[in-house]
Amino acid sequence: MGCLGKSVAEGRGFSDPFCVGTGPSAWEPPLYPYLIGGVFKIFGTYSYASAWALLSVNSLFSALTCIPIYLIARRTLGEIEARWSTWAWALFPYVWYWSIHWVWDTTISPFLLALIFLIAVQLEDGEGAGAWVWFGALWGVVALTNPSTISFLPVSGFWAWYRRHKAGRKSAAGVAMASLLFCAIVGPWLVRNHTVFGKWVFIRNDFGQQFALGNGEAARGYSMVYQQPNLNGRELERFKQLGELAYATARQDEAVEFIRANPARWVILTFEKFFYYWGGIPKAADNLAVTILKMSLFLASSLLAWWGAIRAVRQRRPGGWLYLLLLLVYPAIYYIVYPHARYRHPIEPEIMILVVFMLSEFRRRRSGEAAEERTPA
Question: What is the percent of the chain where pLDDT is above 90?
Answer without folding.
Answer: 91
